[in-house]
Amino acid sequence: MAVELKRDIYGRPESDSVEKVNLTEAFASFDEHWSPRLAGELNGQAVKLAKAGGEFVWHRHEDADELFLVFSGALRIELRDSADVTLQEGEFVIVPRGVEHRPVAEDEAEILLFEPPETRNTGNVETEQTRTGRETVD
After folding, report:
1. Pairing mode, strands 45-55 and 101-115
2. How distant, in Å, are the alpha carbons of 33, 61, 106, 107, 122 from that of 74?
3. Which of 37, 57, 64, 126 has the most CB within a 10 Å radius?
4. What does the DSSP assignment read for 90-107?
5. Rounded to whole angstroms, what are the CA distances from 23 to 46, 86, 101, 111?
6. Residue 117 contacts residue 38 (beta carbons within 8 Å)
7. Is the CB of residue 19 less than 8 Å from the CB of residue 126?
8. What is the pTM for the complete model shown?
9. CB-count burial class (<10 Å; 0-12, 13-18, 19+) for 121
10. Listed residue (69, 133, 68, 131) closest to 96, CA to CA
11. Are 60 and 124 in contact (CB under 8 A)?
């Protein structure tokens, strides 16, 4: 199930492009943990899908808020300067720009991320988990 977004000459999604995404099929199309896939874009924001497993790296995004929505499983967002937030299926949290955080999934979780398209998954740090490409769901 490839998501092909029509683009204008500037690379922006065309406004008349209407694409349905089946989340169950999209998540089934990849296995890697912490490797977000672009599922769509709207109003300057990317909708990314990721599978989470274990601990991710502590990081922050200086210029972008980040929304985590749990589709399946559970996700804990650890925060350096405040209480952790645990999300169950159907719940989301917005981590404000500049807030250091670390997502953790004890068991595999399927999550949606809403953030600017250029947002690097590891924010201000570079690790083996950093993904810079714009991989799409299959």
Report:
1. antiparallel
2. 14, 22, 8, 8, 20
3. 37
4. T-EEEE-TT--EEEEEEE
5. 15, 22, 26, 10
6. yes
7. no
8. 0.85
9. buried
10. 68
11. yes
pLDDT of the chain along its 138 residues, tens only?
A: 555 556 665 555 566 678 899 999 999 999 999 999 999 998 999 999 999 999 999 999 999 999 999 999 999 999 999 999 999 999 999 999 999 999 999 999 999 999 999 888 888 888 888 877 678 887
Burial of 117 (0-12, 13-18, 19+ CB in 10 A): middle
**CA angle (54, 99, 50) in 5-degree steps:** 35
Query: In degrees rounded to 5, what are phi and psi of residue 117?
Result: -55, -35
The size of the chain, in residues, is 138
Q: Counting Cβ atoms within 10 Å, is residue 63 exposed (0-12), middle (13-18) or buried (19+)?
A: exposed
